[in-house]
Specification:
Blueprint (H helix, E strand, L loop, with lengths): L6 E6 L5 H13 L3 E6 L1 H6 L2 H8 L16 H8 L2 E7 L1 H9 L5 H8 L4 E5 L3 H4 L2 H11 L4 E3 L4 E3 L5 E3 L5 H8 L20 E3 L43 E6 L4 E4 L2 E4 L5 H12 L3 E6 L11 E4 L3 H9 L7 E4 L6 E3 L18 E3 L3 H15 L8 E7 L4 H12 L3 E5 L12 E8 L8 E4 H17 L1
Parallel strand pairs: 1-2, 1-3, 3-4, 4-5, 9-12, 9-14, 12-13, 14-17, 17-18
Antiparallel strand pairs: 6-7, 8-11, 10-11, 15-16, 18-19, 19-20
Bound molecules: flavin mononucleotide (FMN).
Flavin mononucleotide binds next to helix 2 and helix 5.
Amino acid sequence: MELAGKKILLGVSGGIAVYKSCELLRLLQKKGATVRVCMTDAATEFVAPLTFASLSKCPVYLKSGAVEARPFQHIDFPRWADLYLVVPATANVIGKFACGIADDPVSLCFMSCTCPRVIAPAMNVAMYNSPAVKRNLEILRGFEDTVVLESPAGELACGEVGRGRLMEPAEIVAYLETRDNEGECLPLATVSAGCTKVGEPAEPSATPSSGGHPRNAPEPPAVPVAADVAPTQDATLPGHGKKVVLTAGRTEEAIDPVRYISNRSSGKTAVALASVFYANGFEVEVVAGPMEAAFPGGVKVTRVQSAREMHDAVMSRLESADAVVHCAAVADYRPAHAADEKIKDSRSQLVLELVPNPNILRDCTAARASRTADAAGDARRQVIVGFALETDHFEEHAAEKLEKSGADALLLNAPVASDSGFGRDSVRFALVEKGKPVPPLAMGEKVDLAETILNFCLERLNA
Ligand SMILES: Cc1cc2nc3c(=O)[nH]c(=O)nc-3n(C[C@H](O)[C@H](O)[C@H](O)COP(=O)(O)O)c2cc1C
């Protein structure tokens, strides 16, 4: 979603993270959005409404009506808005939203608004894991036009560690920018590798193409991407001054001008990775094959179609990268010959000869090794992480692939379980590190996976 020109109502409820809503308000304004604020009484105990009124240049809607309350603010404010954001959302207001209670400005606006709603919960880990909050969040996820953002794990304001943190304001903004213009919210990520299938685009184009494609092959579909902005300059962020190159989406290997071999990757894992790295101060450059999910603004995206194009694009970006994360579902094989003309339907048996594609991960680690050798060990430290989708003998296969690849770690994932897979929010994964035993696969969510890789990269880069 292009945030410039959008009218955003910010609902603030009473948690310790209220101060972060001020930062969020400023970031939204910097993107060109107009923001109005409503607050619960408890929220005003943490940050004075005057702060929000001054920042938003508009009276805040309060229960007590302390700042220029008008009689129909509970209708006017939500009707005015293109989007209602509740940041932070306390356990208390989440319960009210779920149960239809509307006795304060934030819950009243939630009930009376007709625009899409995005809720960012923030609370202590015990509250977050309580059956009531879990149930209420589940109810909200089922509401039309309502999205519940992740509450990442980490150190909480109370000193405890666990889930329940407020998603960082920059990450919320990055996430909003992945919404399409109709307001539909794209989930940050699921899994990104899959089985091979033969596809046929509905409307083949006659535009000539190059780089391993037959004449008349369709141009790569546009990777959705929000407007480019400069990488964050916040020097306090751990990734400040560092660059990550990510591969994303799937590849399409031409059979003829209208048919190709590909897989089911949606690119959503890469979007989660891009968002998390970007929110932590990294410059993010993505080499993306065809995919549906959109990247947040600020992320530089180069479009490719085939595995060979992806290979070349990645290899030419290696030198400047501090970290390289190979998330794309690259086809292992391509047709030996792509026909120049559409293959005619003769209803007789057709045999496709397949040849192996270049191994992008291995070529990256080989390039790193030769750079290190050339520079007599003085080469800049570069972290390389691959992905491995396995369906059986996880430990053996992952350990073998890691050894052969020369990568520092492999994100082993298993999307075949009944509760994890394509298009789902949860995935079974484990980060397999060089020289360490393969940890057991654990169920986690999209953002957990991205944060696991981020933390590994930061650890290695700062070692
Ligand atoms: C110092 C302090 C911090 C709090 N932080 C949170 C929090 O992060 N999340 C939460 O759900 N409740 C938190 N609470 C409890 C809420 O303030 C309390 O449930 C309040 O009734 C919420 O009101 P509201 O939902 O109308 O804003 C905190 C309370 C205190 C005293």
